[in-house]
Amino acid sequence: MAATAVTAAAGMLTGCGYGASADDTPVEQAAGVSGAKLSADTVKIGYFPNLTHGTALVGLQDGFLQKELGATRIKSQFFNAGPAEIEALNAGSIDIGWIGPNSAINGYVKSHGTSLRIIGGSASGGVKLVVNPKRIRSLDDLKGKNLASPQLGGTQDVALLNYLHGRGFKVDAASGKGDVNVIRTENKVVPEAYKSGSVDGAWVPEPTASRLVTLGAKVLLDEKTQWPGGKFVTTNIIVSQKFLTAHPDVVEAVLRGSVATNAFIKADPAKAKADANLKIKADTGNALPPAILDPAWASIEFIDDPLSDTLRAGAEHAVAAGLLKNPKLDGIVDLTLLNKVFTAAGRPAAGDAGLGAK
After folding, report:
1. Fewest beta carbons within 10 Å, which of 196, 199, 208, 263?
2. CA 213 vs CA 132, 154, 202, 297, 336: distances in Å
3. Span 6-23, pLDDT tens digits
4. Residue 225: which residues within 8 A CB-CB, separation 6 or more?
5. Three-state SS for 23?
6. What are the angstrom distances between the C-alpha of 220 and each of 131, 165, 199, 215, 287?
7. Tens-digit pLDDT profile for residues 253-277
8. CA distances from 189 to 36, 155, 196, 240, 285 (A)
9. Cβ(93)–Cβ(22) below 8 Å
């Protein structure tokens, strides 16, 4: 299943990481370990300490995942960028991960369809075009301006390039130069770049967007307005194919825990938000202040469906931008276990948009 990027850099499709390195010390989740052990002694889970990974944050912090796993223990490891998490999945350092859609696509394509499966959804939304209101007052003012995106070929980078193309702007995808200059800048660096004036705005996920607002930026566009029904995948759940084959009961338990976590988030969003922030503080040493946390959390919808149709659309946008060539995505999505969980709960099945195994 060959698929090649236009440039080597463009091939490194990345997710919505808040930084660029992995924490190399797995942390064992000990609280709440009880009940029967499943087919694996341990399941290794990866995620980002980022609000768009709120399902993983709350699920780990409040024990929803561990409850479903019984005596099968969790070892969790956080990452700050998609490529590092994919590398860990391929190496067997993690079994299941929360990750952005383009990182999942890239991992699947580079392995010729052998590395992973997308098995569930986690988040929709939480991505905005935020600008300096002194330099950009409307969408008509974008020409000649410098806009940041997290990384070349990343989920937000593809969305920005697709949006600019739709408005008639010409931008070279590889260099980012054109009628609008796209400056690839890590999320953690974007606020300083904004303050220094080196970028006029940014197409970024939360909490970076809300962080920029505290610096005087204004939200010019919410990406959800560009998608039918206002929904598009921001974070998915992936699993290594090897682990899925060997331990489907464990994978199903994690999915039950994820579904239970999202139900809790919907039922008590204030406590869930606070608990997610506690997990971020535990992982990074710093909690998010309310001025950033509150609007960021409110803009994210936590979901169980992976929104496979928007995953396919995102891949098509990457092809149109020249960042991917002929990606073969058949089989990237496997919703067998998620739909088993849905059936048990009396919920309708989620669709795979033709991306399931034939």
Report:
1. 196
2. 9, 22, 11, 14, 41
3. 333 334 344 443 333 444
4. none
5. coil
6. 6, 17, 15, 15, 26
7. 999 999 999 999 999 999 999 999 9
8. 45, 17, 11, 31, 18
9. no
